[in-house]
Amino acid sequence: MGYYDQNDENQNKRKKSNTSYFLAGLGGAIIGALLILLVFPGSGLLSNESTTEKSTGSKSTNQSQQNLTVDVTSAVTNAVDKASDAVVGITNIQKTNFWGQGGNAKNSSAEAGTGSGVVYKKDGGKAYIVTNNHVIEGANELEVTLSDGTKLPAELQGSDPWTDLAVVVVKGDKIKTIAEFGKSGKLKPGEPVIAIGNPLGLQFSGSVTQGIISGLERTIEVDINEDGQVDWNAEVIQTDAAINPGNSGGALVNMSGQVIGINSMKIAESAVEGIGLSIPIDSVIPIINDIEEFGEVKRAFLGVNLASVEEISQYHQQNTLKLPRKVTAGVAITGVQSNSPASKAGLKEFDVIVGMDNETIHDVVELRKYLYIDKKIGDKVKIIYYRDGKKETTEVTLSSSEI
Questions:
Q1: Active-site option among 84, 116, 134, 351
Q2: Is 248 one of the catalytic residues?
Q3: Does 98 score more than 80 pLDDT?
């Protein structure tokens, strides 16, 4: 008689039930896969072709690849777009003398240097370009190269060595872009700026460098006649935007695309880097207005030759100028032009000017800056001076140099 185990029977039933569930699930999966293949024939399931494509990456890569573009438009690119075409190249052409065969002299012309300029005005069929005086100095001919490579003959309207500025004129029919002037008086240290010009010649025309305003109202000593003596103190903007030879006369531009300076000088020493200098546009405007109208800058004229007292030996300070020992600064008059304002006011050779109106005058540079910047033609100026050791005063009515 066999022993009947109820647990074994229950286990057998559960095994049959699990097997049924498994077979049902497997069948469902197969049916689902077949449906996917029917609905999505390109899915590539169980396809050797799709496997090859995935391994090589040919078809699937082409399907997923997209043409992406990056919008690089920024304040910098907008400023460059606005101002760059107004910046031109200027070639200084001078006559040369080459010795040919047989000892015959042949006169010719050659490029003496290149610089940059900024087109700022069109009027009466002409376009006006501001640049540096040292860019055009000594030129027999001038040639302007536009941003598209077009070359135009140019004429010098006038120049001013004191501020290192000049105006060049070309026919205006080829000129499409005029620079917009900003306000250099509103600049702040740390403000971003862009320098545009032609460093190292026209092969790098339209070069753009970016930096910041490193300093405002910087004073740089200038020797106009290259005699080793300081003739003028130029007030300039300092920037760390790269300014190289050839950038002279180019534009210093703010983020609105406005010209706020004319690049002029660069300290070029092995130990100095990142110091570029630019003439503030607020100082440029009255100079180029005068050059446009008169061909030169009209300044108040005193009519004297001058020397700073500090450059005169102690012996001549005491014996020639006869200055009191307490007077160690001032400007000695070394000559007076006839019929000049100084002559009419009674000033003489060996007088020593120590004050003008309420301003103390220490040297020639201070006297010139007071006359050229603070005074106008026709103004009256009180001159405080020493003669034979005594302090005296006189009044001068300033005129132009033509009188």
A1: 134
A2: yes
A3: no
In angstroms, the CA 379 to CA 371 distance is 10
Is 362 catalytic? The answer is no
**Distance from C-alpha of 274 to C-alpha of 242, rounded to nearest angstrom:** 6
Average confidence (pLDDT) over 170-186: 94
Of 184, 205, 214, 248, which residue is the catalytic one? 248
Catalytic residue among 84, 85, 116, 164: 164
Residue predicted with more confidence, 244 or 369: 369
User: Which residues are CB-neighbours of 390 under 8 A, at least 6 positions away?
Assistant: none
Q: What is the pLDDT of residues 52-67, one digit of tens each?
A: 444 444 444 455 556 6
User: What six digits make up the tokens of 155?
Assistant: 């004429």
Alpha-carbon distance of 291 to 298, in angstroms, equals 9
pTM of the complete model: 0.73
Structure tokens at 248: 């002279």
Question: pLDDT by residue (tens digit) across 204-259?
Answer: 777 899 999 999 988 888 888 777 777 888 889 999 998 888 888 999 999 999 99
Distance CA 250, CA 90 (A): 10
Question: For residue 49, is pLDDT > 60?
Answer: no
Q: Is 134 marked active-site?
A: yes
